[in-house]
Amino acid sequence: MATLMARLLFFTWLILPFCGTEKVRQRALRQRDAEYIERYNGCMQGPAGTPGRDGNPGVNGIPGTPGFPGRDGLKGEKGECVRESFEEPWKPNFKQCAWKSLNYGIDLGKIAECTFTKMRTDSALRVVFSGSLRLKCKNACCQRWYFTFNGAECTGPLPIEAIIYLDQGSPEFNSTINIHRTSSVEGLCEGIHAGLVDVAVWVGICPDYPHGDASTGWNSVSRVIIEELPK
């Protein structure tokens, strides 16, 4: 027991000087730091440093989750039906037949004919006859000039015609006077199929009236013009 106590006393005697020395050293360091702070605390702040470079772009984030479905919109107005057309653009299609001097003195029958190629079924034909016409008679008479298509008059919508009517006249007026006038007969006809079409000009009678002495194309040029038109 005496030996143990002697060892503890000896160990304490060795350690105490070191502990005191360490405390003195720490106190000196704290005092030196305080003096340094007091000395340099009143100095002016230096200029700012150069800004640093931009960093590298970050990687893409994780995709977000889908949002909630939106509300139903208001009911729209009723639309219009538009029919698309894939047909080729319309191209002009016309023809002219001309005669220098027909001098047809017939009262009933075909005067002239012109063949035309119609390109489409859903189109119309415009026809024109231009030439000299005459009618004379001693009593009241009427004469009719008209078109036919493949031998039949137009039914879409109505015949294409022109008439000349002469009254009986009076004793003071010579009803047999012979006057030739350049006139025209023209119109549109629908419902004619595509292909070759024989277009003809005829002279005939008027219903309920006698015919007279007719003349067509005297001493002048007569012509038939045919043109296909879109509907």
From TrEMBL:
Signal peptide coordinates: 1-21
Occurrences of domain CTHRC1 C-terminal (ranges): 89-226
Give a Gene Ontology cellular component term annotated to this protein: collagen trimer
* Membrane-spanning ranges: none
Which Pfam family name is an example for this entry?
CTHRC1_C
- Stored InterPro entries: CTHRC1_C (IPR057873)
Q: Per UniProt, which keywords does this protein have?
A: Collagen, Signal
Residue numbers spanned by region Disordered: 47-76
Q: Which domain of life is it from?
A: Eukaryota
Query: Among its keywords, does the record have Signal?
Result: yes
Return the protein name: Collagen triple helix repeat-containing protein 1
**Which organism's genome codes for this protein?**
Acipenser ruthenus (Sterlet sturgeon)
